[in-house]
Amino acid sequence: MEAGDATLFPEEQVRLEEAIASFSPAEPSHVAVVSEYLAGRTPFVQALIPGYGDRIAFMPLYSVAYDTGFLDDIRRGPEIIVLGDCQNLFLRRIGGFENLDAFLAFAARTDRMLITTWNIHAWNYLVQARSIGAYFPVQIALPRLGAGAIKKAILSGYSREIRFVEDAPTRTPVLLSLGEKEFTLPFGGGTTAVPWPDINLAPLRARLSGKKEEKVAVEDLVFERLVQIARGNIGVARAVWERCVDRDEVRVSTILDPSPDIKLTVDESFILLIILSMEQIARSDLARVLEPEIDPAPSLFRMKSLGIISEDRQGIAVLPGALGTATDHLKKMRMVW
Question: Which is it for strands 56-60 and 31-35: parallel, antiparallel or unpaired?
Answer without folding.
Answer: unpaired
